[in-house]
Amino acid sequence: xxxxxxxxxxxxxKRKLVGVNKDLIHVVIDAxxxxxxxxxxxxxxxxxxxxxxxxxxxxxxxxxxxxxSGDAVDLGAWLDGSVSWHWPLYIExxxxxxxxxxxxxxxxxxxxxxxxxxxxxxSAQEAMEDYIKYKNDKNQKPFLDGAHFQIEVVxxxxxK
Length: 160
What we know:
The protein is α+β, with helices and mostly antiparallel strands. The protein has helices at residues 11-16, 22-34, 48-57, 87-103, 124-137; strands at 39-43, 72-79, 82-84, 107-110, 148-153.
């Protein structure tokens, strides 16, 4: 019988959550306990200068990022002591975040499904496929940022 492995946030990840919306922090903490794929918080709050640099590099498409207000996090798949960018790992993380958002009554957008909250789907895979179809139907290239999660509606007003 295979036992379920439980993960926890590293001190590094906890530091990266300073200033992030408290409801989003709860989603991340819940997700790390139930995920099949360990992850690390790569970025929480971001300065306007950092955001400008990411847009210049093509890593972001907006200067009005929810990272600036503390309403977004980037999570990296943690594998063998470093971040892996192997795409299927991000589906696993997104699935844990989707379930956690639902359990915490938080509406969450994922960077591989920008047009609808991930809560609206039965799986992260379904959410991503719907987004890709949505963009293709509009003859637009999908912008897939599997590491990115942002809060859309906060339960009791914005709390930081």
